[in-house]
Amino acid sequence: MTVDSTTAYSSYSNGSATTVAAKKTTLDSQDFMKLLAVQFKSQDPMKPMEDTAFVAQMAQFTALSQSSSLLAEVGSLRTEQQRAIAQSYLGCDLTVSDGAGVVSGTVTGIEYADDGPRVIIGQVTFPLSAVLLVEPGSPSNPQSAAELPPAA
C-alpha cells in the first residue's frame, strides 16, 4: 500500500532554522499502530468496534508484512540462482541470440550488471535470457589416454 505524506524535520545552522521535508511512501507497523489508536479514540462509545475487527486488521497487516518479506527473499534467491547458472556456463560453448542473429562461442567470463549476470563470448556480453543452446566446452588441452601420466 502506498501512502503519500511528509514529515518535517528542523535543523539549526548559524542561528537560522531550516525545515526539510522527507516523503514517506510505505506504511510500516508504527503507522498501523497509530491508525489503530486513532480508531480507538474515534469510535462511538455507544457502539464500540468489535475486538474481532481489530484482530482481523492485525492479521491482515501481519500477512502483508510477511508477503513483502517473502517477495524480497524470492528476489534474492532468483539473483543467486542466476549467478550460479552463469558460473556453470564458464568454459561451455553457447549459442545466443544477439537480436540481429545468432552467435556461438565459448564463455570466457561472467560480468555482473545491474540487470543480472551476463556471459562473455569473445569481446561481447550477453544476458542469460539470450542463451539458446548450451554444450559442454571442448577441453583446452586435449590428451589421449596414452599421454596421461599413470595413476599413483
Description:
The chain is an alpha+beta fold. The protein folds into two domains: 1-43, no CATH class; 52-137, no CATH class. Helix content is 34%, strand content 36%. The protein contains two helices and seven strands; from the N terminus they run ββααβββββ. The strands form two sheets. It has a five-stranded antiparallel beta sheet with strand order 6-5-4-3-7. It starts with a strand and ends in a 17-residue tail after the last strand.
Question: Could you outline the blueprint of secondary structure elements for this entry?
Answer:
Elements: E1 2-13, E2 16-26, H1 29-42, H2 51-88, E3 93-97, E4 102-113, E5 116-121, E6 124-127, E7 131-135
Antiparallel strand pairs: 1-2, 3-4, 3-7, 4-5, 5-6
Short description:
34% of the residues lie in helices and 36% in strands.
Oligomer: single chain
* Arithmetic mean pLDDT: 77
Distance between the termini: 66 Å
Q: Which term fits the overall shape?
A: rod-shaped
| Largest beta sheet: strand ordering | 6-5-4-3-7
What count of domains describes the coordinates? 2
Total strands: 7
Overall structural class, as computed from helix and strand content, comes to alpha+beta
Amount of beta strand:
35-45%
Low-confidence stretches: 141-146
Offer a few descriptive terms.
single chain, about 150 residues, alpha+beta, 2 domains, 5-stranded antiparallel β-sheet, two-stranded antiparallel sheet, 2 helices, 7 strands, about 35% helix, rod-shaped
